[in-house]
Amino acid sequence: MFLPSLQRSLSRRASTLLAAFLVFASAGLSLAEGGPANWWKPEWSARKKITIHTGADGVPLDSPPGSPALLVRLSGDFAFTSAKEDGSDLRFLAADNKTVLPHHIERYDSLLNEGIVWVKVTDLKPGASSEIFLYYGNPAAESTNDPKGTYDEDTLGVYHFTGGNSDSSTNAVSAEGTAVPVTTALMAGGVRFTGQNSLKIPTNPATAWTANGALTLSVWVKPATLGPNAVIFSRRDAAGTFILGLNNGVPYLTIGTATSPAAAPVTAAAWSHLAVTVDAGKATLYLNGTNYATLAAPLPGLAGDASVGKDMAPGPAEAGFAGEVDELIVSKIVRTPGAIKFAAISQGGTAEAAKLAVSGEAEAGTPPEHDVIGEHLDLIKQISQSLDIFGWIVIYLCGFLALIAAIVAVGKMVYLIKIDKASKVFLKQWENISTDITALDHSDADSVKSMGGNSSNRQQREMKESPLFHIYHIGSQEIQHRIDAAKGNFDGLSERSIGAIRAMLDGGATRETQKLQGKLVFLTIGIAGGPYLGLFGTVIGVMITFAVIAKSGEVDINSIAPGIAGALLATLAGLAVAIPALFAYSYLASRIKDATLAMHIFIEEFIARIAEAYPTKD
What is the pLDDT of residues 175-204, one digit of tens each? Predict the structure, then answer.
């Protein structure tokens, strides 16, 4: 029980460590993704700009349409061959090329070059132009169809009648009953009524109407005949009556006992958009986006079933509707006249619709570079899931070695840079005093540090970091000791004294070399120990894999490969420690060798200078 729980704990912690370790090992290697400026994502190879004109250059609106669902028709000007066969790679973005707009596909046929897509555009303004972008051309994209996200929370029901009678709003109250499906309706699918059949929208608490509240209802109709009292939509219960229909082609609205006044009839066998808004005791009937009639009547509080195509109330007073119906939408708020006109024009498929939403030319993006490193890192992450507990222990140890090696390498590099800079400052000062080293005679310690008073305080601080300065300081002190010991009778240095000074300088150089080489052992441990640790983890992993196979009796590549791959990951971790440590050690060793050689050269020059300045005593 202990080992599995420990393994799971290590797995969770080591996943993060392994990812960071692998990124560190592959630092400096990356592939840039291409794409034109202001392009959303390079995975999408093409886009089209759609400009919505609600001003004089398009379809003028006298009130804000809000955030409606825009109908986008894809036809011959859209490269269906560049998109996925089912349109699942379609993405719509706002003008900022960052905000993804919810959308859903009502119909998409790449063979017939036909697509009907609904997109929620945000905050349209009247008398202005707005832009959205349609991206496509990503074979790896998954569908983001979001019918419910395309409509706001005030929408009670949306019925496209394409492939069924389902509700695309968040309430999801599907219609029931019989109606003949029509595949060639105004937008995509629709339903046909004969005057005898109908659809019922069953009662649901979420779709109840509030008495004296607000309502907007819109629907597209195509009457086959212009008969009397043809009911398109009705809702009745004890609280009242709501009926929308055609009386010999004249649209009418009945609320309770009041009926809207008659005006011009619609045309038979042609599509017409009807909309009704009710608020504050006033109802308005719209035909094709314009005000058709008004009625002084409040909204009744209806919670019962609703009917499409026929009045469900008994009696012959109301006849059924004969014709086609498409796109029925009910909302619990009053949509503005601008929103109703926007829907009527954008969904109608007329020349005005082409002026309202203008589709631009297709733009091609630069395909993304093949991210080989990213793919391999993801693969290694998947392989790590097959590691056993011993493999994770090895990964932890290798990660610890890598961290120590990195700290030592960086610290040593900084130190070498510092002493190299300090040695350059010292050698420049040494040139001024080396021609006459006797200038240090009878000098105090401060004079030695300042190179006979020739160095500034800043230069003295910098020179303190130089090993050459430390050796020079040792030699200067040895000479001064002998001068002070002679008590004014100093007449030169004997060969024995020069030999002693050389020994002291060599000792100082040895100590400086030890400082330079200090902690390099951690790099050698990483170089030598990393591969052995990795090999240990691999051997243990392979042993366990074969033991599990022998126990289970399953001998196939799918049972062997994950365990072997996970075991080899331990060797990879060991090599990932050893290789950078080897490179770092080789470079640092070369720099340390140069610094050590510089110290020995300086010692020889220093001995030569003092032998010349202080001749050997007889």
Answer: 999 889 998 899 988 999 999 899 999 999
Strands (E) in 332-394, as ranges, are 357-364
Output the CA angle 142-106-274, nearest 5 degrees. 150
Using an 8 Å Cβ cutoff, are 423 and 468 in contact?
yes
Is-contact 189 106, C-beta < 8 A? yes
Q: Which two tokens mark 510?
A: 């040895």
pLDDT at position 319 is: 76
Percent of the chain residues topping a pLDDT of 70? 87
Neighbouring residues of 59: CB distance < 8 A, sequence distance ≥ 6? 53, 341, 342, 345, 352, 355, 356
As a three-state string, the secondary structure of 451-470 is CCCCCCHHHHHHHCCCHHHH
pLDDT tens digits, one per residue of 496-520: 888 898 999 999 999 999 999 998 9
Q: Which residue has the higher pLDDT, 276 or 34?
A: 276
Is 443 a residue whose pLDDT tops 80? no
Helical (H) or strand (E) element with 477: helix 467-486
Model confidence at 308: pLDDT above 90: yes
Residues 259 and 295 sit within 8 Å (Cβ to Cβ) = yes
Q: β-pairing, 319-320 with 230-237?
A: parallel
Going along the chain from its start, the domains and CATH numbers come out as 2-34+370-387 (no CATH), 46-152 (2.60.40), 155-332 (2.60.120.200), 388-618 (no CATH)
Is residue 209 within 8 Å of 302, Cβ to Cβ?
yes
* Spatial contact of 360 and 133, defined as CB atoms under 8 Å apart: no
**Backbone phi, then psi, for 308, in 5-degree steps?**
-120, 125
Q: Which two tokens stand for residue 214?
A: 């607000």
Residue 442 scores a pLDDT above 60 = no
**How are the residues of the chain apportioned to helix, strand and coil, as percentages rounded to the nearest 5?**
40, 20, 35
Cβ pair 494, 452 in contact under 8 A: no
How many Å is the Cα radius of gyration of the chain? 44
Q: Would you say the C-alpha torsion 423, 424, 426, 427 has a positive or negative sign?
A: positive
Buried-exposed string 148-171: b where 16+ CB fall within 10 A, e elsewhere: bebbeeebbbbbbbbeebbbbbbb
Instruction: Tell me which long-range contacts 174-179 makes (C-beta under 8 A, separation of at least 24).
Output: 175/199, 175/200, 175/201, 175/308, 176/200, 176/201, 176/202, 179/308, 179/309, 179/325
Neighbours of 235 (CB within 10 A): 25
Q: Give yes or no for residue 379 having a pLDDT over 90.
A: no
What sign for the dihedral angle of Cα 293, 297, 303, 307? Answer: negative
Of all helices (H) and strands (E), which one includes residue 328?
Answer: strand 322-331
Query: How far apart are the C-alpha atoms of 385 and 406, rounded to whole Å?
Result: 27
**CB atoms near residue 616 (< 10 Å):** 12
Mean pLDDT computed over 130-140: 95
Per-residue pLDDT, 153: 93
431, β-bridge pairs = none
DSSP string, 504-566: HHHHHHHHHHHHHHTTTHHHHHHHHHHHHHHHHHHHHHHHHHHHHHHHH---SHHHHHHHHHH
Neighbours of 287 (CB within 10 A): 19
